[in-house]
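Reply to dn_fold:

You asked what the input looked like. This is it:
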Amino acid sequence: MKLTPEEKEDRKYMRAAIAQAKKAYQLGEVPIGCVIVYQGKIIGRGYNRRNTDKTPLAHAEISAIKKATKFMKDWRLEECRLYVTLEPCQMCAGAIVQARIPEVIMAAENPKAGCAGSVMDILNNPQFNHQVKVKKGILKEECGKLLKDFFVELRARNKAEKEQKGNL
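and this is what came back:
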């Protein structure tokens, strides 16, 4: 299967988002990563740090948006693309709309909390003054496996901790 230049570029940047997700994994966080690209350059990176930072605001997309807006010296990211390993939640989808990001490229869908079409579609709600082009499924299997492996390990770790507490 021969990839188009656009598909090659999408895979390149999704791999960068996966590298961010692996940083979260190493911290024991749900492995979600994000990069924001402007004119062929990554200007914002982020990964999930909710437990580490003890805040519900420490999502990959929020961190990447903060860094990208600092780079651009503007809250508008109108010429950027956001790559994320898991479909954005309602908070992140709202931030994407507010930042005027025109395109989101995501890997895995999130049937429990996704707001780019799974639970709801904040990114393309015609009542908002900005809609976002969404591309789904880029390196979906790789990102899905990373998430699945994390949750298998987390359940095993939680079970072992519970059993250890029962033996005290």
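The mean pLDDT is 95.
Hope that clears it up.
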